[in-house]
Sequence to fold (134 residues):
Amino acid sequence: MQARGIHHLGVAVEDLDSALATYERLFGAQVEHRATVEDQGVRAASVRIGESRVELLEPLGEDTPVGRFLAKRGPGMHHVAYEVDDIGAALEHLSDAGAELIDETPRQGMFGLEVAFVHPDSVHGVLSEVVAVA
Fold:
């Protein structure tokens, strides 16, 4: 598997609207997409900063992955998402290479794209996501 590049950086925030205002004011970020992703327990916004993308994640509750992350670590860098051509092949490659998969099959993420997560223990402490972009 060869990742095509970094699709986005995920940042856990306590208040999505406040974070959006900060990113717009400081970096000229432009909102690309907003969504509530119930199965991941987040309200999220994707913002473009030049050619790059940051995904801001506000938990829907304390007992969600991002809610637990915030309680343990506070706001900040949550994950790195890598763009791949074929998510099924990527997951097979990652598994065969010894990575511990959080998602053995893809699920729907932002923009309706297929995504899957790799456990941070497999990537030197960084939660990693693969994103299939057609």
Observations:
- The chain has a mean pLDDT of 96.
